[in-house]
């Protein structure tokens, strides 16, 4: 079955960068887009960006453009998200999520367990 | 870009029916599908309605979705409420290469 396993919790200082991973299994990796969504403590879901697992093409929400980098490794079926110039407002749980079908606009069907990133001096 | 506005919270007793609204600020609600996600505390979201009114396998038919062009909004209706339905619910849609989530609605069943 489809499974997305995310990397462990991170603690970073303001100004630093963090790289999270999302290792997928149970399906043909290049055929499906993956989103990154975050959730600050006690807050709602916030869409960050999307990566085409086949081509590697990405698109980020305007808010994160310039400091969000998404990549993938097809040999290990893993996607990565790097967020730079961290501030305390980046403290959140970060989720990767795979779309349901091969269309870019299909819903987010399969979610990772989430990774807590804490930004603190 | 557009926003999706949801009520902050709703509350109903077990067995009743609740409807959660999701109003699109600009653009036509019918131009792109609306999804609904359920999130229980400490867990990742799960899909309960996709493409406005479709239920994934495993989601009970107590859950239904609809859109209303006149109010430019979508709705999630849960009938025969169970205590296990208590959770946060988020609507989500898409336009011009942007995926947007509503602010979420906390459903209390008591």
Note the topology.
The complex is a heterodimer of chains A (121) and B (110).
Chain A: E1 3-6, E2 10-12, E3 18-25, E4 33-39, E5 45-52, E6 58-60, E7 68-73, E8 78-83, E9 92-99, E10 108-111, E11 115-119
Parallel strand pairs in A: 2-11
Antiparallel strand pairs in A: 1-3, 3-8, 4-5, 4-9, 5-6, 7-8, 9-10, 9-11
Chain B: E1 4-5, E2 9-12, E3 18-24, E4 35-39, E5 46-49, E6 63-68, E7 73-78, E8 87-95, E9 98-101, E10 105-109
Parallel strand pairs in B: 2-10
Antiparallel strand pairs in B: 1-3, 3-7, 4-5, 4-8, 6-7, 8-9, 8-10
Textual characterization of the structure:
- The complex is a heterodimer of chains A (121) and B (110).
- With 121 residues, chain A is mainly β.
- Chain A has no helices and 11 strands.
- Chain A has strands spanning 3-6, 10-12, 18-25, 33-39, 45-52, 58-60, 68-73, 78-83, 92-99, 108-111, 115-119.
- In chain A, strand 7 and strand 8 (78-83) form a beta hairpin.
- Chain A starts with a strand and ends with a strand.
- The model of chain A has no long low-confidence stretch (mean pLDDT 97).
- Chain B contains no helices and 10 strands.
- Chain B has strands at 4-5, 9-12, 18-24, 35-39, 46-49, 63-68, 73-78, 87-95, 98-101, 105-109.
- Chain B is mainly β.
- In chain B, strands 2, 4, 5, 8, 9 and 10 form a 6-stranded mixed sheet that branches. A 4-stranded antiparallel sheet of chain B has the order 1-3-7-6, with no helix packed on it.
- The chains are: A mainly beta (121), B mainly beta (110).
- The A-B interface holds A 35, 37, 44-47, 50, 59, 61-62, 95, 97, 100, 105-109, 111-114 and B 1, 32-33, 35, 37, 39, 44-47, 50-51, 56, 88, 90, 92, 94, 97-104.
């Amino acid at each position: 079955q489809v499974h997305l396993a995310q990397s462990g919790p991170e603690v970073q200082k303001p100004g630093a960068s963090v790289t999270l991973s999302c290792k997928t299994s149970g399906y043909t990796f290049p055929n499906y887009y993956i989103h990154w969504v975050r959730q600050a403590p006690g807050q709602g879901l916030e869409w960050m960006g999307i990566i085409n697992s086949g081509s590697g093409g990405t698109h980020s929400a305007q808010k994160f453009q310039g400091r969000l980098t998404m990549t993938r490794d097809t040999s290990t079926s893993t996607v990565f998200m790097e967020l730079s110039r961290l501030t305390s407002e980046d403290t959140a749980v970060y989720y990767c999520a795979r779309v349901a079908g091969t269309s870019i606009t299909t819903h987010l069907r399969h979610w990772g367990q989430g990774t807590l990133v804490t930004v603190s001096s | 870009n557009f926003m999706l506005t949801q009520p902050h919270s709703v509350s109903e007793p077990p067995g009743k029916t609740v409807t959660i609204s999701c109003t699109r600020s600009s653009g036509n609600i019918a131009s792109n599908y609306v999804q609904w996600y359920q999130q229980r505390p400490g867990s990742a979201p799960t899909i309960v309605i996709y493409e406005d009114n479709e239920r994934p396998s495993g989601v009970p038919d107590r859950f239904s979705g609809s859109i209303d062009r006149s109010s430019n909004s979508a709705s999630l209706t849960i009938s025969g409420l169970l205590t296990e339905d208590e959770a946060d619910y988020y609507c989500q849609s898409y336009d011009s290469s942007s995926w947007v989530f509503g602010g979420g609605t906390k459903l209390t069943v008591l």
